[in-house]
């Protein structure tokens, strides 16, 4: 496997992770035995988000049933569903004083409902502990299982997020166990059957063309998505897909305008933007 194509440019460098809030969040997460995608996916923004008092909780364990070549979340032995997790997470949200809570999970193809039931129970626990908080769910695709998606709809988060990740041509390389059209249909199904605002995310720098991105923006908009994040792909290691190109910040501004022109209402586009970056501000 080849290494990322070249040295990271200056605009992708991040500052060290040290602040009172960063330490406080780590302490609360560790004491509750909780995981965040910030840590598990080695997100470059975790210092910024933790300093601002936000985090994206990762439920259903730290290992995934899939092995996407862009992702730093590891595959391996899968944890049984922990019935105490929803209450522990809700308590952590109280201790952190969160007003907007983002929940995500690894993909759990081993579970009949793909983990949708645990999402639902966690939302219920948060609603009981923090009735005024808003909730965003960033979910896997649930393998085209309407019953699982209906559980998510019934949970009634303020925002439903599912990442398309890349343009359809690159799916066999980037997301070989996923389906582009299936992801679009999932987003549209949630919106049309609930009215919940839907959101998606894309990585760039994997070899896609701007024409392919414009087409993808159009298709995302046509499937009732009103919020989109666009960020630079960063290879977690030399064992992952290499970066084909680092895009300049000006290109991210241009892509934001193109996505809005396609009909997507809110677009966050910058090199270090990730799926739940500044999600509290967006809501």
The helical percent reads: 25-40%
Low-confidence spans: 1-5
CATH topology (fold) name: TIM Barrel
- Strand line-up of the largest beta sheet: 1-2-3-4-5-6-7-8
Major sheet characteristics? 8 strands, mixed
Let me know the CATH homologous superfamily. Answer: Aldolase class I
Write the layout of secondary structure elements.
Elements: H1 20-31, E1 35-36, H2 37-40, H3 46-51, E2 56-59, H4 85-96, E3 100-105, H5 116-129, E4 134-138, H6 146-155, E5 159-161, H7 171-174, H8 180-194, E6 197-204, H9 210-222, E7 227-232, H10 249-262, E8 266-269, H11 279-282
Parallel strand pairs: 2-3, 3-4, 4-5, 5-6, 6-7, 7-8
Antiparallel strand pairs: 1-2
Describe this structure in words.
This protein has 283 residues and is α/β, with parallel strands linked by helices. It has one domain: Aldolase class I (TIM Barrel, Alpha-Beta Barrel). Helix content is 38%, strand content 13%. Strands 1-2-3-4-5-6-7-8 form an eight-stranded mixed β-sheet. It is globular and about 45 Å long. The N terminus is likely disordered.
């Amino acid at each position: 496997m080849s290494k990322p194509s070249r040295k990271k440019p200056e605009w992708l460098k991040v500052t060290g992770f040290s602040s009172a809030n960063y330490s406080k969040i780590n302490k609360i997460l560790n004491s509750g035995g909780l995981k965040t995608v910030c840590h598990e996916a080695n997100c470059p923004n975790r210092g910024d988000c933790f300093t601002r008092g936000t985090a994206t909780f990762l439920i259903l364990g730290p290992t995934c049933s899939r092995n996407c070549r862009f992702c730093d979340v590891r595959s391996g032995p899968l944890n049984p569903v922990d019935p105490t997790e929803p209450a522990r997470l809700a308590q952590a949200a109280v201790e952190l004083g969160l007003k907007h809570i983002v929940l995500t999970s690894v993909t759990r193809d081993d579970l009949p409902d793909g983990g949708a039931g645990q999402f639902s129970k966690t939302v219920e626990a948060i609603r009981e502990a923090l009735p005024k908080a808003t909730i965003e769910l960033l979910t896997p695709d649930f393998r085209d299982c309407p019953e699982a998606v209906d559980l998510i709809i019934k949970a009634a988060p303020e925002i439903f997020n599912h990442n398309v990740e890349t343009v359809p041509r690159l799916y066999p390389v980037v997301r070989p166990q996923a389906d582009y059209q299936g992801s679009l249909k999932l987003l549209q199904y949630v919106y049309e059957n609930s009215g919940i605002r839907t959101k998606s995310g894309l990585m760039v720098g994997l070899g896609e063309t701007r024409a392919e991105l414009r087409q993808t923006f159009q298709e995302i908009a046509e499937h009732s998505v009103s919020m989109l994040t666009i960020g630079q792909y960063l290879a977690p290691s030399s064992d992952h897909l290499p970066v084909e190109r680092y895009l300049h910040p000006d290109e991210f501004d241009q892509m934001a305008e193109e996505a809005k022109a396609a009909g997507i209402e809110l677009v966050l586009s910058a090199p270090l933007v990730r799926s739940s970056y500044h999600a509290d501000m967006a809501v």
